[in-house]
Amino acid sequence: MKLHKHQQEVARSPARYKISRGGRRSGKTVLKTETMVFKAVSNSSRLSREFKDRTVIFIAPTAKQARTIIWEALKKRLHGLGKFNEQRLEARIPTEEGGHATIMVGGWENRENYRGMSNVIHVEFDELDTMKDFFISYYEIFHPMLMETGGGAGFGGTPKKENPNLRRLEKEAEGKSDWAAFHFTSWDNPDFSKDELEKAREEMDGETYKQEIMAEYVDNAGALFKYTSLVDMFSNTITKSPEKYLVVDIADDGSDKTVFAFWKGLELYRIEQFSRLNTEGVVNQIREYQAAEQIPMSQTLVDAIGVGVGVASNSLLDGIIGYKSSFGAIRTDEDPTKLPNVHYTNQASLTTEYANLRSQCVFQLAQLVNDHKIAAKIDDIRIKEAIIEELALYQEASVGDGKRMPTKKDDIKALLGRSPDISDCLVMRMYFEIRAKLVPGQSEERKIRASKVAQQFRTDTSFNEANSTK
Q1: Of 84, 114, 455, 467, which alpha carbon lies 20 to 30 A from 141's?
Q2: Tens digit of pLDDT for each residue in 85-106?
Q3: Domains of the chain as residue ranges with CATH
Q4: CA 146/CA 144 separation, integer angstroms
């Protein structure tokens, strides 16, 4: 089957892992078909050892899509050569070494069926941006197969802004010698009618045309966190600080997971999670971690809502900071309403543009993440995925009263189907950054204000605001 020049560029690349971002009808399916057939029959692949009998897998978002996208094309390509199992969507063909290869076609929803398979030398993923929890399942199910054989993988599709797996893969592949990324548009397919493409340019809205035809990434309008900056957070190198902090997000009813986040300056270096910790258990765990990590009470923060009220006011944790998102935003010496290059007098009153403390912390976190000033040295893929997924949902949600507000937590929970407990620890960590701006040492009045606010957060945990949420 003849490949056009952009397909040939991908096929000839020696990279072990290839990312192909293409527009509609740009030739992705033809390329994947040829790649799988070649990998299945050829003995020229660089593997960890010889595999006389081997397996190649094609994964689409669903089994139905897999049959539609590639199964019929694969049967046509292998007509007279392969044996086909229509029920299992498997093709069996001879190899150059005299063995046989099996090409398996399936859907992402059945990915658990592939766990633990052996002799898998190549996997092709199609329409990657429609696959939920891709990175978790890839690294738990498919990547171990390829490590065992020395095999490779292809990742392809047209970008989708709601689930940008392709974008993240390209970002993480930067600088890696065994990875290569390719981009071609619908216009690059010489067999695609140029008249139809011209009609698409005229009839489609600009965003859809960029995404579907030009295969360009389109950002979510209003997103507070840049997606690439969220990915970069796990590889950022920042100036380290000796100051350590412990932030604790306590399960609302004590039966879910309580999250302990450990910080060295603005570097998140450890996450621990516990199920079904009652008040006494949380208190004991905090004291144990404080002693082991040498973190003082004044740099330990817990959410003082629900079970957290009893923790924050516990006599064994005297001096700990209780956090409530419903508290008013902290007035700092950095007035967010001031414009650059405009003169203001030293007597200008301190103001805030945030609806509450949670809002202020979310916007502060977004600024630091987007400026690459936060690092997360976390290896657990599930924790990394949770942080990226949760923070990517935050958008500007101000209501026009002059107070800035991000997406409400209840709305985040509804979108996720769970509570954003891990990212809450990142949001609450911002309290310390904001509080630091309260003590500029410029006036006695500001010192008094700082003292009053600090006292409020230490002692104002005896009452429970039943309707407040983090």
Answers
A1: 84
A2: 999 999 999 998 889 999 999 9
A3: 5-217 (3.40.50.300), 232-459 (3.30.420.240)
A4: 5
